[in-house]
Amino acid sequence: MFFVLFDLPEIALLLGSLAVYWGGSSLRNKSGKKRDEGEKAVTDGSSPAPVRMEKTPRSGTAADPWSGQNGQDKSASPASTRPQTTAAVSGIVAAGIALACVATLFTVQLVYRDYYSCVNDSLTKTGQLSCNELLPRSLEPLFGVKE
Predict the structure, then answer these.
(1) Could you confirm whether the keyword Transmembrane helix appears in this record (predicted)?
(2) For the chain, which end, N or C, has fewer CB atoms within 10 Å of the first or last residue's CB respectively?
């Protein structure tokens, strides 16, 4: 959104589309946990799908009396994906707003192409001010050339 405000819509379009893609990929990721060192995927000769072996307790690890999980891995809890989901949704919303602003800006430039070409072709400030006649009166304060 900052790049739209600083009049760099091309960069905003690129970063907004990447943010939507990455946020969508993050939301599609259902496995909130990664494989630990104790877990191994082995294939049986008769079955093509991997079979998970049970996790063996590591030596030297004690149960945490304050966690209430008795030595179980805390990253396996379903609440561990909540920060990722929150960040992904907020990123998608911000990217959607940025993409909407870029689309609006490109639409205005397409609709009022005569105005923008007049401003770009004029050589003096007086010539640019005369191009304001090509805009509706309500849009002059937003897009028009200021005196």
Answers:
(1) yes
(2) C
